[in-house]
Description:
Structural class of chain A: alpha+beta
Largest interface: C-D, 29 and 29 residues
Strand order of the largest sheet of chain A: 1-3-2-6-4-5
Strand content of chain A: 15-25%
Number of strands of chain C: 8
Largest sheet of chain A: 6 strands, mixed
Strand content of chain C: 35-45%
Oligomer: heterotetramer
Helix content of chain C: 25-40%
CATH topology of chain C: Aldehyde Oxidoreductase, domain 3
Order of helices and strands of chain A: EEHEHHEEE
Radius of gyration of chain A: 13 Å
CATH topology of chain A: Ubiquitin-like (UB roll)
Distance between the termini of chain C: 38 Å
Number of domains of chain A: 1
Number of helices of chain C: 2
Amino acid sequence: MPGCLWGQAGESSQEMPRYTILLFGPASAAIGQDRVVLESSDPCTSDELKAQLAQAFPALESHVQVGRLAVNQGFANADALIDPAAEIALITMVSGG
Amino acid sequence: MPGCLWGQAGESSQEMPRYTILLFGPASAAIGQDRVVLESSDPCTSDELKAQLAQAFPALESHVQVGRLAVNQGFANADALIDPAAEIALITMVSGG
Amino acid sequence: MAVRVRLTDGPLAEMIQTSFTPGCGARIVFDGVVRPDEDGQAITGLEYEAYRPMAEQQLERIGRELVEKYGLLSMDIEHSTGFVPNFACSFRLVIESAHRKEGLGAMDEFIDRLKQDVPIWKCAK
Amino acid sequence: MAVRVRLTDGPLAEMIQTSFTPGCGARIVFDGVVRPDEDGQAITGLEYEAYRPMAEQQLERIGRELVEKYGLLSMDIEHSTGFVPNFACSFRLVIESAHRKEGLGAMDEFIDRLKQDVPIWKCAK
């Protein structure tokens, strides 16, 4: 899985950005977790992080395709570099109301 | 006032159609009456009756121009012959709500 | 397809909350409120005059037409007659529908038709 | 230009009637109601999950944007989280404006944006 690892305790390296991504609703149900951790060889943009997320978790692929990433509770631009220290969330198709 | 008379008690003739027209709101306020009576030499259509009404009561002219006649509580077609026995009303610009 | 029409003397009371009609996914309530100025002039309220039987018939007729056109579940129409002071409610329209779009569309169209075809006049006081 | 946002656990209670904001000529209340079927399947209700801090921020942000855009007097937004049974209210939007058109326009646009940009998900139960 080049450039992207499902983080396990003890595997993280100080050089590799480590992204924790919150999951909700259908995405959370799809893999039975409310968050995932991704390690990337380089700092990622929003689109890059989405691609790595779909690659690392094929069960999330359809959700990632229609979803957007939120950074610190606001939607991120596709080409914005994501700070690994930020609160990151995958916002899939919403259905309130 | 050819073809049209402001009916006074005792003046009505059995041969001439006699129209009572209810007035409301601004039209009623314009002449200080809640109804007027028109005698016509012939049976009138809605448009003809409106023309006679404006002619007989110049103070109503502006109201008649933007108004419609209702016959038995429904709007009348412009060319419909009006039955003098019907309940006739001048519906000027309304302003409910 | 219930359509209810009422002309009420004076300001309208607060709405009585009722349970939703089965199938209702959207209930929209419109309150028309008397504002303390009319054409820039301060007023104390509005006096409504209705050609009552025709107003009731027109409200009911427009209601039935729109219930049919938009497939609504219910429409409840109430309008004041007589004096309504500033800040009080003189008109209320309650629409229930399965979904939002038809309810909002019907509400907009109803109020347009009210202001065109329902013989009720207001006079600033 | 008051915008109020609340996320409430379970079904929304009946609206508390308040007096109209000065200048209000139209108050529109939208109640979103849980229907007993979802995609043709009978259900007992909907379970709402919110990404709470972001949902609150988005609701407030959209509200402020539309208050500005339409020149509204107030907007009151309430949405359920957790389980809401059939026939109960899970979303309420109250808009006050000087006139009807801007209120209806804002209501339509708000609900569009809610269904696009507010991180709340529902699951049929």
